[in-house]
Amino acid sequence: MAADSTGATGAYAAAGVDIAAGERAVDLMKRHVARTRRPEQVTDASGFAGLFRLDTAKYKDPVLATSTDGVGTKVMLAQAMDRHDTIGIDLVGMVVDDLVVSGAEPLFMTDYVACGTVVPERIAEIVGGIAEGCAQAGCALIGGETAEHPGAMEADEYDLAGAGTGVVEGDAILGPDRVREGDAVIAMASSGPHSNGYSLIRHIVDRAGLDLRAHVPELDGVLGEVLLTPTRVYAKDCVALTAEVEVHAYSHVTGGGLAANLARSLPGHLDARLDRSTWTPAPVFGYLAEKGDVAREDMEATFNMGVGMVAIVSAEDAERALAVLAERGATAWRLGDVVPGAGQANLTGDHPDA
């Protein structure tokens, strides 16, 4: 984990960059990063790059998959609440759960943290969250960068991004071409809004004059803390499911909502028919809709509404898929099925108690 430390210490410090703070942040990160180590990692004594040996004997035709993402304006909420230990989990979830859609096992990640001022303890909290997310995903955190940007960012501001790499057997790549009429659509529950729709969330909070630090009885918690609930990381569940049943496709439900994301995993001649009556969205979604006077169609076009990942499996494997996920402690249910159509995901019915 490198720190931006170019230039003479005295002159650079006068310009607003504290090299010593950056070096201390790196030292504090090391114990977090060590938790994510995988046996394929190769030590680079210089620390300028992360090295990872691909076990080519394990694959006939290894195909690398890569993804990069950030966490959007959810970082602003973390800063407002002065809570920095979970935002890194969000980052990992956004990256690795895109990788598994192709059927790939996430192998490693790198991160990038930009901030107005390096506060070592805060940077270590952020990276600690990234390491926790990597541990949940089973991938290694093999490198990264911390950059201090005085003048470009306020002292307490930061942003983060990450990139991940995975591997999938060439003849096992998942996607729309594998989906068949009659397939079962399996939903996996989200932990909340994950990392999407936070510009709308902040707009609702501001317009409705909501107090992020207030306890909200209907949410059974402090509003800001509920909104910071970290993204559920599905990577290990998806890798395990693919190994046990005939999975045809996955869809990671992020910005744009369930229907738009699932449509990306459908061929042009098939639809996914989804039934709202099969689940009740978490209370946070109803709370946001009420306080923001947001119509259902707008909520569904912005948020995951309680479904964070979808698996499309053969109809014969539907019950086994649910059993595998239940054994892993993942909340999942049959959301619908695949029918003739035009490559769309269509929601019907109403949520219980809606």
TrEMBL record:
PANTHER family: TRIFUNCTIONAL PURINE BIOSYNTHETIC PROTEIN ADENOSINE-3, TRIFUNCTIONAL PURINE BIOSYNTHETIC PROTEIN ADENOSINE-3-RELATED. InterPro entries: PurM-like_C_dom, PurM-like_C_sf, PurM-like_N, PurM-like_N_sf, PurM_cligase. Residues 61-168 form the PurM-like N-terminal domain. This is Phosphoribosylformylglycinamidine cyclo-ligase. Pathway: Purine metabolism; IMP biosynthesis via de novo pathway; 5-amino-1-(5-phospho-D-ribosyl)imidazole from N(2)-formyl-N(1)-(5-phospho-D-ribosyl)glycinamide: step 2/2. It comes from Nocardiopsis aegyptia. Belongs to the AIR synthase family. SUPFAM superfamilies: PurM C-terminal domain-like, PurM N-terminal domain-like. It is found in: Cytoplasm.
